[in-house]
Design goal:
Length: 90
């Protein structure tokens, strides 16, 4: 069965990528990542729903797909951006 979205944690992302970003660019990046995270949460929830139906009818469901790994990446990137925001005092 696919992993619940609440259990998908952020994967490590180096903050070096964001250290030269301005405060405005960091804010834009954070907004963009938040939108993508919402899209991926919806996709993962749909995968869970579909998998439950498959498990009911076939006896087995599907596991995690690209949605889960990308969600972990996006959550890691958001954390790296937040760290850069804090470091710059934005």
């Amino acid at each position: 069965m696919p992993t619940a979205t609440s259990q998908i944690t952020g994967s490590y992302t180096s903050g070096l990528h964001y250290e030269n970003f301005s405060c405005n660019r960091l804010a834009s990046e954070l907004e963009s990542l938040a939108r993508r995270e919402n899209q991926l949460v919806i996709a993962q929830e749909q995968r869970i729903k579909t998998s439950r139906w498959q498990a009911f009818w076939r006896g087995y469901g599907e596991g995690d797909g690209i949605e889960a790994s990308e969600l972990a990446n996006v959550r890691g990137q958001k954390e790296a951006v937040r760290t850069a925001v804090a470091a710059k005092g934005c």
